[in-house]
Amino acid sequence: MKPLSRLKGAISATGRLAPILRSGLIAGVVVAAVTYPLAAVGGLGLKAGADFYDSLPSELKSLPPAQTSYVYASDGKTLLTNFYEEHRKYTPIASISENIRKAIVASEDGRFYEHNGVDAKGIARAFVANHTAGEVSQGASTLTMQYVRMALRDGAQTPSEVMAATEQTPIRKIREARLAIKVEKEMSKTDILERYLNVAYFGHRAYGVFAAAQIFFSKLPQDLTLAESATLAGLVKAPTAYDPAGSDQTAATQRRNYVIDRMAELGYITPAVAETTKKEPIKLKITEPPNDCIAVGKKNNSWGFFCDMFKNWWLSQPAFGANPGEREDNLRRGGYKITTSLDPKVQDIAMEHVTKRQPIGSAYALGEVVVQPGTGLVKAMAVNRTYSLDQAGNGAHTDPKRYGKIKGNYPNTVNPLLGGGNLPGYQAGSTFKIFTMVAALDAGMKMNTWFYAPHRYKSQYFAGWGERGSCGGGHWCPSNASGSMTGNHAMWSGFGKSVNTYFVQLEQKVGADKAVRMAERLGLKWRTDIDKLQASPGKSKTWGSFTLGVADTTPLEMANAYATMAADGKFCEVLPVTGIVKPDGTPAMMEVKGKQVPVATPRCRQEVSKDVARAATDAMRCVTGYGAAKGACGGWSTAPGVYGMVDRPVAGKTGTTDDTRAAWFVGFTKELAAASFMADPDNPFHATGDYNSWKPIETVAYTLKDSLKGKDVQQFTPPSDNILGKKPANLPKMKKKKKN
């Protein structure tokens, strides 16, 4: 008998169809026959027989459906953004309105609670309708079969698997039928419905009922009304055709009313309720869930730079995949709840003080990063830029070679100007003196290490090609910023006054390579070819100018390096998160020394001794006007007003580069460390000028003051006498100039 005759005979024999369909093979072929040309099905299904059927998969192997990852501020409630490919959040059926449960069943599979995965009566009805119409006017897929199809789609790992799950072929229908019967044996109807509701596509990138309720009605699934539920249920069949967000809601209304009528036919609601509900207009409250850093809200646009840093951090973490591609896929599909370290209050304060001193729109960037000592948590990242890809209205590029050819990166940019990305950063000038001082102390040298510092000093180091300060015999001969620095100095006054010729001598004594290695120990990375070369083991011993800050760095790195001193020598890696929780409520884990610990655990180590850190801090107190506990600061410093601005114990360091192309200040209390810089990121030769050097100083000082307002004052612990050393009895005297 031909397949068509056989099917007709089965359909006409009313009492015999259900037993026939209990055979998985016959069920699959019949379902396929309903929706595909019978010649194709006949040639495939019945002729293939049991061998073909048995070769099909019998287990539903699917990955958990992709879920949206939510990224929050440090309070765990303020949403920064989401990451997703398919906007979805798995929701237990107990948290889903009964209205939408019944509406989906009425819309897609009215006999859902009666069949075993393949609906005999439904197939018969669809077959007759399609045969009469001469085309496919009705489908025979049950809700369970639809779930199987979506599960196979979501679990696809290769293009061929995607094709097998979605292509319109008889084989797919037969496979779905077999798997649906298997699923019905292993899962309850409630479980199947729950999973269906969490994977169904409703349009507008909404996968699952949680996303649909949020996008179309800005509410939770448990709060959906009857009319709203029917509207959503009607979308599953054809999300685009029945989209209620379009200008014409006629088709969407008709489809919704059809669902309501079906609910009444099935006895889920009364006819009276159905008629009343159908008279309601479709009332939407559209929400567009943000996706990725670029979608951070306009009101809090400055969060975008922190978000970008967080994303780059995530892509570097082995806990989330073997490579950056896998890690990003995990971020967009993993359904994590991520609580970041960003403190909205501190961020607002930092942004206020940045833009007050250098408004958005200037080619010069003024930026600031705030880090918590002892944890590495990044509390704020502020810069006078708008986080945006749109550069249409940007100013002219300040690099003469690019002027008129491309736009400048102001006011709009997504460049990681503050760190945490792939930009090399900026020269940081005398803020690098911390690395030489800490290296010297770590090597056993004392705070009372005295040198006579002339205005200009002929060092043992040789000048590099094109390096300023070269002198006779190829030597490097740096000089001080002011003649008033000439004289005898120990670490306190040498640091407080930023005496170049003192620190070059200190670097010579401890070794330039030791200063370079200390910078690495405190978190600095070398990103340019020249810095990598100079920092290499073979070259670092001769890198004399390193102590004057000729290498590139970022505010993020510098804030964290100085935070190590505030934390009594405990270095912590930069960390943008305080918690990462998987969909099952357990924390995301990583391996540390053979043990599993939460990924959000601070990664700290005692990098230098407490006494070394306290001694360095004592010298840095000289800079701010707070004054050292154990030494003489020398009567003046480079930022003496900071203590008065902050109004609590504070230490730090100023820094400027050649011709003041960049100006810096890094400051810290026991509670917070902050680094601020000013430069032109598009053109590093575009000098900011000495007249702007106060801006980073004030930005840091007032950010620390306002962020710590109302909090208990914490004191620095002075260093022990053991690390101080003794002042030499006979110090070199300043040479008097000869009279003409």
UniProtKB/TrEMBL annotation:
Pfam families: Transgly, Transpeptidase. GO terms for cellular component: outer membrane-bounded periplasmic space. Residues 79-263 form the Glycosyl transferase family domain. Residues 713-740 are annotated as: Disordered. This is Carboxypeptidase. In the N-terminal section; belongs to the glycosyltransferase 51 family. In the C-terminal section; belongs to the transpeptidase family. One of its GO terms (biological process) is peptidoglycan biosynthetic process. The keyword Ion transport does not apply. GO terms for molecular function: penicillin binding; peptidoglycan glycosyltransferase activity; serine-type D-Ala-D-Ala carboxypeptidase activity. InterPro entries: Beta-lactam/transpept-like, Glyco_trans_51, Glycosyltr_51/Transpeptidase, Lysozyme-like_dom_sf, PBP_transglycosylase, PCN-bd_Tpept. Keywords: Carboxypeptidase, Cell shape, Cell wall biogenesis/degradation, Glycosyltransferase, Hydrolase, Membrane, Multifunctional enzyme, Peptidoglycan synthesis, Protease, Transferase, Transmembrane, Transmembrane helix. The chain crosses the membrane at residues 20-39. Signal peptide: none annotated. Residues 369-671 form the Penicillin-binding protein transpeptidase domain. It catalyses: [GlcNAc-(1->4)-Mur2Ac(oyl-L-Ala-gamma-D-Glu-L-Lys-D-Ala-D-Ala)](n)-di-trans,octa-cis-undecaprenyl diphosphate + beta-D-GlcNAc-(1->4)-Mur2Ac(oyl-L-Ala-gamma-D-Glu-L-Lys-D-Ala-D-Ala)-di-trans,octa-cis-undecaprenyl diphosphate = [GlcNAc-(1->4)-Mur2Ac(oyl-L-Ala-gamma-D-Glu-L-Lys-D-Ala-D-Ala)](n+1)-di-trans,octa-cis-undecaprenyl diphosphate + di-trans,octa-cis-undecaprenyl diphosphate + H(+); Preferential cleavage: (Ac)2-L-Lys-D-Ala-|-D-Ala. Also transpeptidation of peptidyl-alanyl moieties that are N-acyl substituents of D-alanine.
